[in-house]
Amino acid sequence: MSPLLFRKPAIFAAFPELIAAESTRHGGVSLPPYASLNLGGSTQDNPDAVAENRRRFYAGLGISADQVASSHQVHGSEIWQTDQPGREQGHDAVVTDAPGVFALVTIADCTPILIYDARNKVAAAIHAGWRGTVSKLVAKTLSQMQESYGTKGEDCYGYVGTCIDECSFEVGTDVADHFDSVYKRFDEEKQKFFVNLKEANASQLRDFGVPANQLEISSYSTVLNNADYFSHRAEKGVTGRLVAIIGRKS
């Protein structure tokens, strides 16, 4: 991967009105262990460096920080539905139908999911760690979009983003017991389970009726591609944060 600030999911390329991207760890000013494009304000990084990183990221997308809607995430299943930018507390999904407002979530191993209802012009950004995945936050968000805007699966395009991969997400029974067998495998040698978060979230999009050809799953891993992405697990908790963002231009 070239050292770019972000990748744009190909699934959204057909919509010129849309801005959707997932950041990398490249192109910022933060020093190790946050090198270099740390976008997370909750880290112990220099706040001035984070602010400059955010300025660069938003400028690269052609937007500004005052157009962003985000929330302090708590690994829960609350959804913030908004037509205004700003910062909330306690939500792990952000939904908007307002042009010029961009839904954003922060990640460092958890799964980012971006959704666009092309008919009703609604965008959603979701942060799903294992708790958000088993609480079916993607399905809950889609249901709320259906109730509020008339969203249908056939009109949605979805991106399941870069996160910890199945061969790196080693868990005990305390976590594995929450997942259906199709999303986990048991390793006899390690006596541990391995969970596939990408597939567990992608299935919620498919179950809502999102066609397979309107769904993209990132081929990257925060762990295996740690040179390009921050990983909380691979870097033992001391690392930067990535973001995933989506919204319509003004």
From TrEMBL:
InterPro entries: Cu_polyphenol_OxRdtase, Cu_polyphenol_OxRdtase_sf, Cytotoxic_necrot_fac-like_cat. The keyword Protein biosynthesis does not apply. It comes from Siphonobacter aquaeclarae. This is Purine nucleoside phosphorylase. GO terms for molecular function: copper ion binding; hydrolase activity; S-methyl-5-thioadenosine phosphorylase activity. Pfam families: Cu-oxidase_4 (PF02578). Belongs to the purine nucleoside phosphorylase YfiH/LACC1 family. Keywords: Hydrolase, Metal-binding, Transferase, Zinc. SUPFAM superfamilies: CNF1/YfiH-like putative cysteine hydrolases (SSF64438). It catalyses: adenosine + phosphate = alpha-D-ribose 1-phosphate + adenine; inosine + phosphate = alpha-D-ribose 1-phosphate + hypoxanthine; S-methyl-5'-thioadenosine + phosphate = 5-(methylsulfanyl)-alpha-D-ribose 1-phosphate + adenine; adenosine + H2O + H(+) = inosine + NH4(+).
